[in-house]
Backbone:
């Protein structure tokens, strides 16, 4: 019988085996990133699937993975997962603290089978602390870190940044960094460890520079009044004549100079360093942008160093000339989606397979990983 080609042969993590205990949000995204980088990620789905609420065929966070279905509440469920963990380099789970232990697949049980295993834990509140056992979602996690309170206009409620800031930036990316660091350590020492990735920790860490500015007295602890939070008139967004928007980031003097020149507002040069004139400058810039459409202003600032760009929608973004030229987006399985990132010169990455369907790869994984018990008949 011909052995099927297993995922994970392309990319810098080729040969790394990852077990993902199915969940929603930051855990699946972190596992997708590892899969994009070439790891052979086996997602352990529960009977009935996760609670994301969309057709699995469109769940891009499950691309480049394979799926098996295991009922962890069944008598042999934990044993099947432990068989996978014994052959893996990394395991990722996103349960509330203590749940994995109660199911029989916690760190101690896994390390008893595989001392080299990197055990990645993804939660909002972390494994310890008063709120650790409580439920939560991205918006609550970023709220207590101070990050949410920085976003939005000063006279309006904080703006919600989808779930990008907490789940993915403060959660998934920190989990991946931690897992890769622990994997390096495990390969050097033969000893695995537990990575406790909490969204509250990662999101707080993202604001390191802002905390430094706050301590130095150059950042006000209220939103919409600072250089990078929309308080500065040459770092923000403006509406155009057709209801579109332009984003402006003309911070440095030379970029600010070019920005004013292309707007025709050269007489406002002193406002760059004079905060008392920011209100006057904002009114002038607002009026100018309202005089033309988004596409017209895009043409004006094209090929300039004024640091101005059109604000595009999700459907528009893949067609932007620069993103199209770089192949930032790709089409796979009938879905337009972001291509793997970052890029590698020697071990390029790609979207190898579409979203894994729950249980569709059980026989292949059982064969490739040498875990026959995964097969329904146990043979």
Residues:
């Amino acid at each position: 019988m011909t052995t099927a080609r297993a995922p994970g042969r392309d990319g810098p993590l080729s040969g790394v085996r990852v077990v993902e205990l199915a969940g929603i949000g930051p855990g699946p995204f972190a596992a997708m990133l590892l899969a994009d980088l070439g790891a052979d990620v086996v997602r352990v789905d529960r009977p009935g699937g996760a609670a994301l609420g969309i057709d699995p065929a469109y769940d891009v966070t499950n691309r480049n993975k394979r799926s098996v279905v295991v009922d962890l509440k069944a008598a042999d469920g934990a044993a099947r997962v432990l068989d996978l963990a014994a052959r893996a380099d990394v395991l990722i789970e996103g349960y509330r603290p203590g749940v994995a232990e109660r199911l029989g697949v916690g760190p101690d049980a896994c390390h008893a089978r595989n001392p080299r295993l990197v055990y990645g834990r993804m939660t909002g509140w972390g494994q310890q602390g008063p709120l650790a056992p409580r439920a939560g979602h991205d918006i609550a996690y970023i709220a207590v870190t101070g990050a949410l309170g920085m976003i939005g206009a000063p006279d309006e409620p904080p703006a919600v940044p989808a779930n990008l800031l907490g789940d993915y930036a403060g959660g998934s990316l920190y989990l991946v960094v931690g897992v890769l660091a622990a994997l390096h350590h495990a390969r050097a020492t033969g000893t695995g460890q537990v990575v406790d990735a909490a969204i509250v920790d990662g999101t707080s860490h993202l604001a390191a520079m802002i905390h430094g500015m706050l301590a130095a007295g150059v950042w006000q602890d209220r939103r919409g009044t600072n250089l990078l939070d929309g308080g500065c008139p040459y770092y923000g967004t403006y509406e155009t004549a057709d209801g579109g928007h332009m984003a402006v980031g003309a911070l440095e003097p030379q970029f600010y100079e070019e920005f004013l020149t292309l707007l025709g507002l050269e007489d406002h040069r002193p406002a760059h360093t004079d905060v008392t004139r920011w209100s006057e400058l904002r009114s002038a810039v607002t009026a100018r942008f309202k005089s033309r459409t988004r596409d017209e202003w895009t043409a004006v600032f094209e090929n300039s160093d004024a640091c101005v760009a059109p604000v595009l929608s999700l459907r528009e973004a893949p067609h932007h000339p620069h993103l199209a030229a770089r192949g930032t987006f790709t089409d796979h399985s009938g879905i337009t989606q972001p291509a793997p990132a970052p890029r590698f010169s020697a071990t390029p990455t790609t979207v190898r397979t579409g979203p894994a369907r729950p249980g569709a790869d059980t026989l292949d994984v059982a064969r490739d990983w040498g875990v026959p018990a995964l097969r329904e008949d146990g043979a």
